[in-house]
Amino acid sequence: MPVPPLPAEAIELGAVASDWRDSVRIAGAALVRSGAATPAYSEEMIRMIEEHGPYVVIAPGLALAHARPGPAVLADGLAIVTLADPVSFGHPHNDPVRVVLALAVAVGGDHLGAVASLANVFNDSDAIDALASATTIEAVQHIMGVA
Amino acid sequence: MKIVTICGAGIGSSGILKVNAERVLKKLDIEATVTAVDLASLAETARDAQVILTSAEFVEAIGKTFADVIVIENYFDTQELTEKLAAALG
Q: Which pTM does this prediction carry?
């Protein structure tokens, strides 16, 4: 199964984020642009982190923001934001974050194929560096295996 | 062998951990079912689990359990997963 849809509107390079919440909002806005989520989804993703801590920073430099399936999700989708300046999420090992992924899943239980494809991309330990230094939308899509 | 992966929503990070744990277990030739759940469903799913894979944030919330709780730092580092699973199951 391929990674979730990652159109150009869902990719933002060199974004300026004042803190981790801001970086998640930028990624959430990218999901809104691509039609995968409503603006409420950004706040849901932030709430997950406030509630459970910075566990979404699942690898050095990479945050995988997400919330549960629900009315704020309009379609499966992925957004990728690279940051001009890294932000700290408060993770003991994997800060600072340079790349924020936002994942929207429409139907719970239906997503493991999509998540497996993310694992395929990022089990290559060079992928996060490559994304962080990508200068074009096409390069990001290529790294993610969608172009 | 039953292994449970946990995250807040039960969709993103726990799913990645499930996929990579399955890969590692196959390489280690260990038969196990790996289930990804959110914290809220943990009590029921993990009752008979031998191993719980998660990140440090959830250890306290998991509370008392008979399972080995393994904390994973880099979800994409299959080397880390291999070493920690082999140590717990070996």
A: 0.90
